């Protein structure tokens, strides 16, 4: 019944009619539930229905490929790949250069894999490469960063705006709901901007005695982050919190606060091992971390589900050239503290 | 390697160490990609890893069980269940009464199924029943509506606020960006409130020549919706749009506009067959519809993934008593028009 055909809607009518019969008489308290499958299928059929073939290859493609963040994502990608019985590989470029990552992506495409989970360093640079891969029958999904104007089947990410709000609640609790705040941000990066926007919106809404008094941009440079923080503390000796949109900024701020011997607390994002070390020794109060394992796991599940063609939404997705599966998944976030820090090391 | 243990973190260290070895030397342009699985597994192992057992039973539980909306959800639930090789059943109560739905839910729990996908009619009424089921080893996920204070593993839903914004863009295009608007709403229902809020926010942000001039509550009563609409047209003969948060309201508004012989257009939500009929005959301009098939499909996938214990996020989920999988999934939305209406019938 789930054979992929060019006429999904016609197939659906058959399913719908079968279902309609199944639903008739299925009342609540009185009738016994109606079994609407024809019984579970034989193992071989199930394999055909969902699991992959042992020769199927799936790739994960990143930039700054050695960064700790991706290791957690690949753990989840591989967990799903192993469970589905397919091979999983990891490739990326060594820096954030878009042309270099496109070259790696095209190397992967040339291998004709079944699917690619991609975190594009620049959205626009990947529109054509992704579309070409999709047209060649290679499924592409995005995770972490996105290429929304491409034909990628879905996007799996964290809700950074929401994270900012939760970070504000956490910090407010730690500060007793009052105090001056310094911010280190990267406004050009969408996800970083959302971390700041969500934080500021929540402060404005719920914490009238907390106030942002200084902000700066360290551009991912730990030393610069430290000197910006030192200047902020000099101008505001009673600074209560440094809120930083990334780990490098958080580490720099932590070092500066320690040197200044003030009571300011530091909150940042992305639990790289060096950040966790500083959370554990108290230099950084806490760190918000995307659930990277879920990010990778559901990237693989999305690719496989798309490839198997087992979901037939009643919609115009084929005519409209859109994906048949979910449009976006929120992979969730955790707050890493001294108490739970050990669980987040990925070395 | 994915055997469920009480010490997920310890297991992870093994995985992490294996992975670390796999990642070393995996550079971009020069080196060949490192195969990080030990090869795909034999069929029997894959079955053990992901697919269900043929005797496993999964239930979907709703209220107003005969409503068309659920039929699409169950199609997706069954598609996933069939692919995974488990039995799927549908039960619900006949009206929106919370006590009656709780009774049906408890009937299902007594059958000791592997999992239940639940759309609770009242969030609070289900906190204890859900928690009891989870403690008894029966996985529960929510879809459409939620019970956020319970221990349900996840929530699969539409982003109604975002839908409201997309509806505003669609209506603005149809009206040439200007005109008076009447609203029929149900402010007590969270998802309906979001449909209105998202719409109004987008109008305010992008369409200065569109203005809400009247609003009313028909409480799901088609006749009341028609008379409210008639009154709005009488007070504003040049009314350009009736924006309605549900299908009953949309059908009532459509009938009233037709009788008044004005040029007002009607936009509503939830593509029940009677609504599609009116979209097709031009009484209703268009209708926003959640992707119900994805809602059901991913409810099953979430339950199965949780039960198999194959995802081990690097986080404090076990200590914190939270779910190991994604916190929320957006199942997507479609705009149903005269052109694509036929694809959305579920009879």
TrEMBL record, chains A, B:
Its main location: other. PROSITE patterns: PROKAR_LIPOPROTEIN (PS51257). GO terms for molecular function: carbohydrate binding. The keyword Translocase does not apply. Gene3D superfamilies: 3.40.50.2300. Signal peptide: none annotated. Residues 63-307 form the Periplasmic binding protein domain. This is Monosaccharide ABC transporter substrate-binding protein (CUT2 family). It comes from Anaerobacterium chartisolvens.
């Amino acid at each position: 019944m789930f054979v992929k055909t060019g006429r999904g809607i016609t197939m659906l009518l058959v399913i719908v009619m079968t279902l309609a019969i199944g639903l008739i008489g299925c009342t609540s308290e009185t009738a016994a539930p109606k079994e609407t499958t024809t019984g579970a299928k034989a193992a071989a059929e199930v394999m055909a229905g969902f699991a992959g073939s042992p020769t199927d290859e799936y790739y994960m493609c990143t930039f700054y490929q050695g960064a700790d963040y991706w290791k957690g994502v690949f753990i989840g990608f591989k967990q799903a790949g192993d469970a589905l019985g397919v091979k999983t590989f990891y490739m990326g470029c060594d820096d954030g250069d878009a042309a270099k990552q496109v070259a790696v992506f095209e190397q992967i495409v040339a291998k004709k894999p079944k699917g690619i989970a991609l975190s594009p360093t620049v959205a626009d640079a990947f529109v054509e490469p992704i579309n070409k891969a999709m047209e060649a029958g290679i499924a592409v999904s995005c995770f972490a960063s996105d290429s929304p104007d491409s034909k990628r089947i879905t996007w799996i990410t964290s809700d950074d705006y929401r994270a900012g709000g939760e970070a504000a609640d956490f910090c407010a609790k730690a500060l007793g709901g009052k105090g001056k705040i310094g911010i280190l941000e990267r406004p050009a990066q969408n996800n970083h901007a959302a971390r700041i926007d969500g934080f500021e919106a929540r402060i404005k809404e719920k914490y009238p005695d907390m106030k942002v008094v200084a902000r700066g941009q360290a551009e991912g440079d730990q030393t610069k982050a430290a000197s910006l923080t030192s200047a902020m503390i000099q101008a505001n000796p009673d600074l209560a919190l440094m809120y930083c949109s990334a780990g490098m900024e958080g580490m720099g701020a932590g070092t500066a606060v320690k040197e200044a011997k003030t009571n300011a607390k530091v909150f940042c994002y992305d639990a790289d091992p060096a950040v966790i070390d500083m959370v554990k020794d108290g230099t950084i109060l806490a760190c918000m971390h995307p659930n990277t394992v879920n990010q990778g796991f559901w990237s693989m599940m999305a690719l496989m589900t798309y490839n198997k063609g087992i979901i037939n939404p009643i919609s115009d997705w084929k005519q409209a050239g859109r994906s048949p599966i979910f449009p976006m998944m929120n992979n969730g976030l955790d707050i890493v503290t001294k108490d739970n820090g050990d669980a987040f090391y990925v070395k």
